[in-house]
Amino acid sequence: MGPSKPTRTPVPVMLDLREYRKGISGVEDCVALWEQLEPALVTVDPRVGSRVRLDLGATGQVGVWFLDPAAAPVPLTRTTPFAVRGILEPPRVRHRCDTCLAEGRTSYAPFLCPGCGPGEGSQAAKGKPLGRVCDEHVVFLEGSLRASCLSHVPECQCGAQASAWCRGRRCRASRVWCERHLRRHPGDASITYCHDCYADYFPVCDHRGCGTTAHIRCEHRQLGAPKPCGRRVCAEHVMRWQIYGRHSRGLALCSLHHGSLQKTPNEKLVELILAGTVTRFEAKKGKRTGNRRQAFLPRISIVRHILINTRKSVLDMESIDALFAGFESRIGRGELDLGSSSNAALRLLRDHASSRREDIERFQAEHVEGRRHFERLVGQLQYEGRREMASAVRFSDYRPRQGILYIRLPRHLRGAFIGTGGATVKELKRKVGVDIRLERE
Ligand SMILES: [Zn+2]
Ligand SMILES: [Zn+2]
Ligand SMILES: [Zn+2]
Ligand SMILES: [Zn+2]
Ligand SMILES: [Zn+2]
Ligand SMILES: [Zn+2]
Fold first, then answer.
1. Class of the 373-438 domain?
2. pTM, whole model, 2 decimals?
3. 150: CA distance to ligand 4 center in Å?
4. Ligand lying nearest the CA atom of residue 173
5. CA of 197, nearest ligand number
6. Ligand 2 center to residue 323 CA distance, Å?
7. If you measure from the C-alpha of residue 260 to the centroid of ligand 5, how many angstroms do you get, rounded to a whole number?
8. Which residues contact 260 (CB under 8 A, 6 or more apart)?
9. Which of 29, 230, 320, 426 is within CB 3.0–4.6 Å of 300 for a Cys-Cys bond?
């Protein structure tokens, strides 16, 4: 046999020695015969003909059958490893084909059929461990080298005759399926999967009409739910809920869950932030992958903007802190059962508590300063006679380091506030002495 490299799968073959006159009686004979065959064998293409006959002159002919021609390397070379899976020898009575026997013939049967033999009612089969089948009556289904006779071809779960074994993760070549319940590997038609296994390897994007293979899973999760939504979305159709700031990848959401955010109450949104982060935290602990996805809770100053952008609802820092603290105490007292995720959730919430206190204090201090800028803005609007705007404008936030004053304004006044090409707001900024931005809503 050719020198074999352990990393490559050997090409399975059967040897047909029924017209080989010399006969073989031991391993040495077998090796000698193989060395004679190999130079001619590597020049054939198993895809063109899966059974070849090689003429050895005076000693007769040897047939080589490729049992899985589609999986053989192209071309075969002297280093291709082969595995002889069976040898057909001249008929002997000791292995008789049960199918032939039923027809009143006797022929040599090198294969085993689990369906034939004892228990199947055949008188002739009595006392034999398993039924036998000849090369004429044997059936091999794709995906496995298990044999059966014509009448014992395994059945698919649906009752139809199976046409291949599924080689997927769930079936591991131990379940057969019919043509209707099989899908072929897109790059290699000789590999077949059942629909479930196929979906494991080639999940389809959930977005309507997309159909491409999608590897991103929706991270939407309810606290206490065993796992996240998990719907698959492709890179083009994934929606990112940017809860970790601009520079970290937000939670991946399917279109259904992204669409539902706007109608979700504040407390539920905080729950989604917590559950999503717990899932990431646990995934990170489990396997140390190189992913740099954030796995700690976002600061409440960011959460405040998330709530404004997602729900148009403006909460002060104390209220947001209370939402997180509420989850912490309910989980801590066992009122909210997160199963095995409880510890991870509590750890994240406790680590988060000090940054929440910081944010509240900073927010209060900044607001004193921010309010002064805001009062000047209102005064300026009144001075310019823009009374409707002066009474409608609301303070939202102030960032002292960047000198940005965030304000809120009803939709119908926003255009006039900004002015053509931003000219009006630019003039206001100059007069008030601070950068003024409208809260996105
Ligand atoms: Zn037969
Ligand atoms: Zn059978
Ligand atoms: Zn399967
Ligand atoms: Zn079926
Ligand atoms: Zn898609
Ligand atoms: Zn989803």
1. alpha beta
2. 0.54
3. 18
4. 3
5. 3
6. 68
7. 19
8. none
9. 320
Whole-angstrom CA distances from 41 to 10, 48, 152 are 14, 13, 33
> With the C-alpha atoms ordered 259, 255, 310, 355, is the resulting torsion angle positive or negative?
positive
User: In the beta sheet, which residues pair with residue 192?
Assistant: 184
pLDDT at 5: 46
Which single residue is written with the structure tokens 């931003």? 422
Query: Which ligand sits nearest to residue 137's alpha carbon?
Result: 1
Ligand 3 midpoint to CA 137 (Å): 27
Fold of 1-90: Vcp-like ATPase; Chain A, domain 2 (3.10.330)
Q: What is the pLDDT of residue 4?
A: 46
Q: What's the 135 CA to ligand 1 centre distance in angstroms?
A: 7
Two tokens at 230?
Answer: 């998990």
> Can you give the residue ranges of every domain in the chain?
1-90, 373-438
Buried b (16+ CB within 10 A) or exposed e, 207-244: beeeeeebebbbbbbebeeeebbebbbbeebbbebbbb
Spatial distance between the Cα atoms of 370 and 374, rounded to a whole number of angstroms? 6
Cα(229) to ligand 6 centroid in Å equals 5
For the range 151-158, what are the long-range contacts, defined as Cβ-Cβ under 8 Å and sequence gap of 24 or more?
151/99, 151/115, 152/113, 152/114, 152/115, 152/116, 156/180, 156/181, 157/181
What are the tens digits of pLDDT across the range 325-363? 999 999 999 998 888 889 999 999 999 999 999 999 988
Distance 331 CA to ligand 4 centre (A): 47
Cα gap 405→319, rounded to integer Å? 21
Quote the ligand 5 centre to 289 CA distance (angstroms).
25
Work out the mean pLDDT of the chain and round it to a whole number. Answer: 87
